[in-house]
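Chapter summary example.
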Amino acid sequence: MSDEPIKLAEGMMVSLKRLIAADNMTQRENARTETQLVIARAMMRAGKPL
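The structure predicted for these 50 residues follows.
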């Protein structure tokens, strides 16, 4: 059994925590972009359309 789903979930949690903790607009925008990329990767791996 692959641990890939666990790594994806961990990556998503890290990205979301960064988004919540961002204290300025640049950090917030970077974290938002990173979160969107993690979600898109997870959806592609799951075979779901974006």
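To summarize the output: The helical segments are 4-21, 25-45.
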